Amino acid sequence: MRKLILTILGVLLIIASFFFAYKLIESKNKVKPVPQKVVKTVFVDTVKNSTIPIVIPANGNLTAKRRVELYAEVQGIFTPGSTLFKAGQTYRQGQTLIRIDASEYYASVQSAKSNLYNSIAAIMADLRLDFPEVFPKWQAYLNGFDLNKTTPKLPSMASEKENYFITGRGIVSNYYNVKNLEQRLSKYTISAPFDGILTEALVTEGSLIRSGQKLGEFIDPSVYEMEVAISKSFANLLKVGEKVELNNLDGTEAFTGIVSRVNGSIDATTQTITVFIEVKSELLKEGMYLEARLDAKQEENAIEINRNLLLDTNQIFVVRDGVLDVVDVKPVYFSDTKVVLKDVPNGAIILSRSVPGAYAGMLVKIFEDKPNKASN
Prior knowledge:
The protein is an alpha+beta fold. It folds into four domains: 1-30; 42-53 and 300-366, conserved putative lor/sdh protein from methanococcus maripaludis s2 fold; 56-64 and 221-298, Efflux pump adaptor protein, beta barrel domain (Elongation Factor Tu (Ef-tu), domain 3), CATH 2.40.30; 66-216, no CATH class. The protein is 23% helix and 36% strand. The chain is built from six helices and 22 strands. It has a six-stranded antiparallel barrel with strand order 3-12-15-14-13-16. A four-stranded antiparallel beta sheet has the order 4-11-9-6, with no helix packed on it. A four-stranded antiparallel beta sheet has the order 8-7-5-10, with no helix packed on it. A hairpin with a 5-residue loop joins strand 13 (243-248) and strand 14 (254-266). Helix 2 runs antiparallel to helix 6. The relative contact order is 0.20.
């Protein structure tokens, strides 16, 4: 009985093994599903070459075109005036900015002028006797001499004898000594060289001012300049007098300036050239940060596309019969986001948006809802 049971179990095991092997063979022979080809939808433009303006972006801070740093050339006490010497104070041309007490020095100047007057008066008797022909002009000079006014210029010498006589009495040297003192006396008063505003005040009324000390800064707020650096490749394209569009960082205010100066040398370190843009507006302030767009040149038979559409090999993707292909192009100018290209065939259909993982030979489908015409 036991042998019968074992025999039946063995037969069942053999039959189960056959069935299991059959199932394994059958599963290997099943046809694997073929993956469907993915056709990506792309956005395109049709190329139409035209004239593309090359606009160079630049930025910088405004500085007053006319500015004066005020320094003291003499020493003394800063005396109060009719207008406080404070930052933001406006002055008219010729109006006194700073007046330094010069009472002591003024006395020495008057003493020197008096000595000059006395020296000339002392020779008048000799002039009447020895040089009667020149006596009238020297007499007129003395009559017009005023100690409270600037010393008038000495009469011109008509002959060598007169020159020797006057010079020998020390009158010429005294005259130039007086003029030197008067010139220095004028430095005790600093006047506004033009209509403007005080932007920095480093001293106050009553303080002791020393020679060589900086007193402040004075600017003309009607005209500003912005210094920008551009690539040396555009050095020959920018010309003085060209208009420049400017705007603030927010883009809420726009201004028009002109190229006032172009530096004649190139910075050896950065290989850039400095351009100065002049701009006028009541809304501008010194130190304001502006962005400029300089029209450098017009590039003919070119297109402008996004920089991310240009491959590292100077090629771009085109669509031909539903398949991506590449064409060689010639980049002529790069901006922050755009690139200007030449040698792109007219009528070519190019990508207007980048496609992740794109490659030559990739199947694509053109987005038809909004067909775009020509890249500028």
